[in-house]
Every structure is written in C-alpha cells, then in structure tokens.
C-alpha cells in the first residue's frame, strides 16, 4: 500500500491537473461564443455569393473554354486532400476525427488506383499523416503564428491551391474539416472544392433579364477563386467553432474525471491514515499491557 | 424613393440601409444605382463607393477591394473582400 505522503502527492497533482482543465474549459466556452458569432457573421456573404454563383452557373454552359476551376482538368487521377486541423490540443478527438475522415477517403481513392496528395492546414494532423503517407504531403500550411485563422489565411490557402492547380499538380481537391453542429456535436466533413461544384440556382428567381458587365463568363471566372476562398474561410470558421466546442466538452469530462479521482484517492488516504493510527494505538496498548 | 443598399464582406455585414443613390466603380466604368434600377451584375474595380444618403447630401466614400455588385429587386448588394476605413 502506498504511503501517506505518496497519496498526498498524488491528490495534489490531480488537483492541479483539474485546475488546468477547468481553466481551459472556461477559456473554450468564452472563445466558443466568439467563434460562433464569427461564423454567423460570415454567413450573409457566403449565402449571397452562392446565390450569385448559382444563377451565373445556370446561364453558362460548361464547355472546353470555360474556366478550369469549373470544368476540371479533364482527368481525375491526382486527388489533393486539404485537411484542416487545429494548432492546439486539449480538444478531445476533434483532430483525430478529421484525420480519420481524410484517411478513409485516401484509402478509398487509393483502392481506386488514384494518387493521393495531402495539403495540411494546422499543426495537429501532421504527425499522423506524415507517419502514414510520408511522401505524399504536398504542403503544410502553418497557422501557428495567427491567433484566429481568418480571411487572410483562407485567401493564402486558396491562392496556393489555385497556383498548384494551374501548375497541374492535382486534378481534384477535397476539403476536410469539422462542421459545427453544437457544442456537443461536431461532424467531420469532406467536400469537393476543386473543380468548384456549382451551387444550385435558387428555385424561383425574378424573371427579369439580368444584365452582366463584363459578360457572364468573365464574371464567373472572376468569382470562382473568390467562391473558393469563401468556402475555405467558412471551413476555417466552422473548424474554429468546432475546436472550441470539442475542447469545452473534453475539458468538462476531464474536470469531472479528476474530481472523481480526487474523491477516490481521498478515501484511500483517509483509510490509510486511520489504519496507521489504529496500528499505533494497538502498539501502545500492547506495550502498556506487557508491563 | 430609397434604394436598399447592402455592403457585405466575409467577416460581416458592413452596411444595410436605405440610401438615395450609390455610385459604383465598375470594371467597365462607374455607374450610379438609383431605386428601380434594372437587374444588373458587375465586377468592381478596387476603389471607392460613393454613397449619397439624400439627393443633395455630400457623398460618403467607402473604399473596397475585390468587389462585386448585384442589383436586383431587393436593391443593391455589394460583395467585397475587404473594406477600408
């Protein structure tokens, strides 16, 4: 049986762990609110842009001459998986879930004989993917220096992706991130981002003839990269909110577990203490009787 | 007679208000939008939007980067990547 001092040390160390998890939980709760409101305020732009894209795409027929971002390269041999993770841990299975979704897709694609490349955003997914696909990481995008990945980062990611795409490094890109459902539920999602899947046109648009300046195709060509940026930006925001949500839940659990553990250890400690006292008493009484 | 004008960036909805007229620096030339403008879409050169709150008021300038304008039944919507000032 562990000595009293040892037990006391263990209780203290669990207590300080609990303090950390509790602090992290409260920080996550505060950040979650911020991340959620950021995600909400990004919605109008994304919705408008999707609307415009939808109505434009319904007017332009996809042909050889249409922009490559929309029409594709004509092959689908090389797939790029863009995996967006967080930079910090302490958020439960959040990163693991995203990586798992990406790996499933990678296996599926490889089974079909395609080439798979990775583009990693954030620090946390790197180790796992590097271990499994050491030679297939196209690029690692670093977000450790920025506090909250924002539109500037989305823009840089999109620009790099488009540059790689134009250089013919890949044919299809999928984006993996975690969709924020609630503080308790985050859903790892994968979606195709290049070639840009055309958003569905709103069902009943005004019948009036819309004038375009310059023409539809040029506008579409100008809007495609922007649409891509918005999608990546949206994913980054969803990811940020999910991370905080996951972190909050995980830390809540950890705090509760630490509490349970402290309770158990305290009982053991008290029993040991009592046993020690009893032994001492017996020793004294036995000594007195022997006289 | 008011034109509903909305300015949206990825970060937030910057403006949503009724104004008299907005002059937009389109890529193929400036154009002014009043209420009842025909449906219209245009890309915007980086530059300043001029917002006239009333007919004779001095215009308020909003500099935008990476913009796109849409005029529909609901009014004028400007999507911009960045808004300065």
TrEMBL record, chain A:
It is found in: Cell membrane; Membrane. Keywords: ATP synthesis, Cell membrane, CF(1), Hydrogen ion transport, Ion transport, Membrane, Transport. One of its GO terms (biological process) is proton motive force-driven plasma membrane ATP synthesis. It is a peripheral membrane protein. One of its GO terms (cellular component) is plasma membrane. GO terms for molecular function: ATP binding; proton-transporting ATP synthase activity, rotational mechanism. The keyword RNA-binding does not apply. F-type ATPases have 2 components, CF(1) - the catalytic core - and CF(0) - the membrane proton channel. CF(1) has five subunits: alpha(3), beta(3), gamma(1), delta(1), epsilon(1). CF(0) has three main subunits: a, b and c. Belongs to the ATPase gamma chain family. PANTHER family: ATP SYNTHASE GAMMA CHAIN (PTHR11693), ATP SYNTHASE SUBUNIT GAMMA, MITOCHONDRIAL (PTHR11693:SF22). Produces ATP from ADP in the presence of a proton gradient across the membrane. The gamma chain is believed to be important in regulating ATPase activity and the flow of protons through the CF(0) complex. This is ATP synthase gamma chain. It comes from Novosphingobium endophyticum.
Automatic annotation (TrEMBL), chain B:
One of its GO terms (molecular function) is ATP binding. It is found in: Cell membrane; Endomembrane system. The keyword Cell inner membrane does not apply. Residues 3-82 form the ATP synthase F1 complex delta/epsilon subunit N-terminal domain. Keywords: ATP synthesis, Cell membrane, CF(1), Hydrogen ion transport, Ion transport, Membrane, Transport. It holds the Pfam family ATP-synt_DE_N. Belongs to the ATPase epsilon chain family. It comes from the Bacteria. Produces ATP from ADP in the presence of a proton gradient across the membrane. InterPro entries: ATP_synth_F1_dsu/esu, ATP_synth_F1_dsu/esu_N, ATPsynth_dsu/esu_N. It is a peripheral membrane protein. The lineage of its organism: Bacteria, Pseudomonadati, Pseudomonadota, Alphaproteobacteria, Sphingomonadales. F-type ATPases have 2 components, CF(1) - the catalytic core - and CF(0) - the membrane proton channel. CF(1) has five subunits: alpha(3), beta(3), gamma(1), delta(1), epsilon(1). CF(0) has three main subunits: a, b and c. This is ATP synthase epsilon chain. One of its GO terms (cellular component) is plasma membrane.
């Amino acid at each position: 049986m562990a000595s009293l001092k040892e037990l006391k040390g263990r209780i203290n160390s669990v207590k300080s762990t609990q303090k950390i998890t509790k602090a992290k939980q409260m920080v996550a709760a505060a950040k979650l609110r911020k991340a959620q409101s950021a995600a909400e305020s990004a919605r109008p732009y994304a919705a408008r842009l999707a609307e415009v894209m939808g109505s434009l795409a319904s007017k332009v027929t996809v042909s050889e001459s249409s922009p490559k971002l929309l029409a594709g390269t004509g092959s689908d041999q090389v797939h790029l998986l863009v995996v967006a993770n967080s930079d910090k841990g302490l958020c439960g299975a959040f990163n693991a879930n995203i990586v798992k979704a990406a790996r499933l897709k990678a296996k599926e694609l490889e089974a079909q004989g395609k080439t798979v490349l990775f583009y990693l955003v954030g620090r946390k997914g790197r180790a796992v993917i590097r271990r499994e696909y050491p030679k297939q990481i196209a690029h690692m995008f670093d977000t450790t220096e920025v506090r909250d990945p924002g539109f500037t980062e989305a823009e840089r990611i999109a620009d790099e992706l488009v540059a790689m795409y134009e250089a013919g490094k890949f044919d299809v890109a999928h984006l993996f991130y975690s969709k924020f459902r609630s503080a308790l539920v985050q859903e790892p999602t994968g979606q195709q981002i290049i070639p840009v899947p055309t958003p569905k046109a709103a069902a009943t648009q005004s019948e009036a003839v819309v004038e375009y300046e310059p023409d539809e195709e040029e506008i579409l060509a100008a809007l495609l990269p922007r649409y891509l940026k918005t999608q990546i930006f949206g994913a980054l925001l969803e990811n940020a909110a999910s991370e905080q949500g996951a972190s909050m839940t995980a830390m809540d659990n950890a705090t509760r577990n630490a509490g349970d553990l402290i309770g158990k250890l305290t009982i053991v400690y008290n029993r040991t203490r009592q046993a020690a006292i009893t032994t001492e008493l017996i020793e004294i009484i036995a000594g007195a009787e022997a006289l | 007679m008011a034109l509903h004008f909305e300015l949206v960036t990825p970060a937030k909805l910057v403006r949503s208000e009724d104004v008299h007229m907005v002059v937009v620096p389109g890529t193929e030339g400036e154009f002014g939008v009043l209420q009842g403008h025909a449906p219209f879409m245009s890309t915007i050169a980086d530059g300043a939007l001029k917002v006239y709150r009333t007919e004779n008021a001095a215009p308020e300038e909003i500099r935008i980067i990476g913009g796109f304008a849409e005029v529909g039944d609901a009014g004028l919507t400007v999507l911009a990547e960045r808004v300065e000032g």
